[in-house]
Amino acid sequence: MEVFYSPQIENGICVLPEDESVHCVRVLRHREGDEIYVIDGLGTLYTCRLTDASPKAARAQVLREEPDWGAHPYFLEMAVCPTKNLDRYEWFAEKATELGLDVISPVIGDHSERKVFKSDRLRRLLVSASKQSLKGAVPTVQEPRTVREFIASAPKDALKLICCCFEGETPRTSINDALEMAGQAGHDATSVIPDGIGELQRIIILIGPEGDFSREEAALAVAGGFVPVHLGPSRLRTETAALTAVEAVYLKCI
Amino acid sequence: MEVFYSPQIENGICVLPEDESVHCVRVLRHREGDEIYVIDGLGTLYTCRLTDASPKAARAQVLREEPDWGAHPYFLEMAVCPTKNLDRYEWFAEKATELGLDVISPVIGDHSERKVFKSDRLRRLLVSASKQSLKGAVPTVQEPRTVREFIASAPKDALKLICCCFEGETPRTSINDALEMAGQAGHDATSVIPDGIGELQRIIILIGPEGDFSREEAALAVAGGFVPVHLGPSRLRTETAALTAVEAVYLKCI
Q1: Is B176 in Cβ contact with A236 (below 8 Å)?
Q2: Which of B11, B30, B163, B235 gives the lowest tally of CB atoms within 10 Å of its CB?
Q3: pLDDT at B170 (0 to 100)
Q4: How confident is the model at residue A194 (pLDDT cuts 50, 70, 90)?
């Protein structure tokens, strides 16, 4: 199933951006009258009929809409420090999109070697990953902030976890136990997600850089309501730790 | 912590292969008298003192041994069809090694586009991945077989799961439920693992190619004692499915 992406769907008419138009018309040789599938990146799949096979701005008429297409039953924000090798970060983002997540927040820690991150490239990559994995919603990529800023601005009513490799003053629980306890306690970490998915648990997970969080960052996080968790005994690279956290949430729901 | 690999440790003397010797002596500039760490790939970490800083075959005297270094409390064999793009298979193998697994069996399915697989390249990669993730045991890579051969020769006394994307005559359970039920039922899927790890659950998980298993392969697997499982609602690439299965086993034990 080939899926296109358009941020411009209004009044029953969908206009594809130039790169998607070229792919639709030149590469896949779609002609006027063909049915095509288009996601809006916000959660809906549109079945459309191509009315103008222009390789600059192909136009199509919406026939059917399917909201919450490929949606997952949680709201997950991963705040992950960029890796030295950006391929590894992109790999994490692609795999996490396949499984299902909502927001990626690049955060810069005290021990981060990489202090600069370009969100635009990742945004483009996640459009592809969402189309490939048949999901109507493309995860949002935030602009980078410091870990300290991120902690200070994190919402109160979410289940917030911080994965550290060391024991601070508050003992760490396994991520499984933290997710389990939050579920059992009827944790008030709920948030209304638009478009009828209903009340979902909002989960925020913070993953540090190769050199881990500083003691100060971990203490600030705990003071800010983050629960310190571990990901088991294996020494995981940053991107593997981040994906393991997404897997823990995903596997809790299947 | 820098770790070297040697398959030649006997009578308290460790000899490094040429590539490891060059890395030890030329790149990291270790000198006679230095303490170095060496894994044997079978599970043990050796702390050694360098006695001959030869870049062809460095020699070191064993000071201490730590068996089961970085071991995990299960025995997991992943039988995974090679992906069209081999990078993706190698990525899976690297990440699975970080988490912990014991055997990778490349298997060729009826719908596999890639019918040939070179195990040697993967073996070298897994030595690096094991050193990087601080594990004494390097996962074994089997020579490729067909899915049908693999099913026919799979041991009777293991917990065997097959991940298919379609419902066969036997309904699929989630991988979590299958692992849970096997644990509760005191499944006889135990096997004595060498060197004192003791009785561990032996788990075999079969992952199909991009085009999934054929109906015949799935039926053969079920007849051979494989439990059909699913990995949740997301459409996962082969390598993501394989890693998700490893994560499900890993996360059950943390």
Answers
A1: no
A2: B11
A3: 85
A4: very low
The residue ranges of DSSP E strands in B81-197, in sequence order, are 103-108, 140-141, 145-146, 159-163, 173-174, 190-193
C-alpha dist (Å) from residue B227 to B81, B159, B177:
18, 8, 11
| Cross-chain Cβ contact B250/A234 below 8 Å | yes
CB contacts of B134 in chain A (<8 Å) are 235
Determine the pLDDT at residue A200: 55
What are φ and ψ of residue A88, in 5° steps?
-70, -35
Q: Is B104 on the interface with A (CB under 8 A)?
A: no
Does the pLDDT at position B194 exceed 70? Answer: no
Instruction: Provide CB contacts within 8 A for A186, sequence distance 6+.
Output: none
Please report the domains of chain B, with CATH numbers, ordered by start residue. 3-66 (2.40.240.20), 75-252 (3.40.1280.10)
Cα(A59)–Cα(A53) distance, integer angstroms: 7
d(CA B142, CA B96): 15
- How far away is chain A from the Cα of B111, in angstroms, using its nearest Cα? 18
Residue B98 forms contact with A (CB below 8 Å): yes
pLDDT score for A183: 72
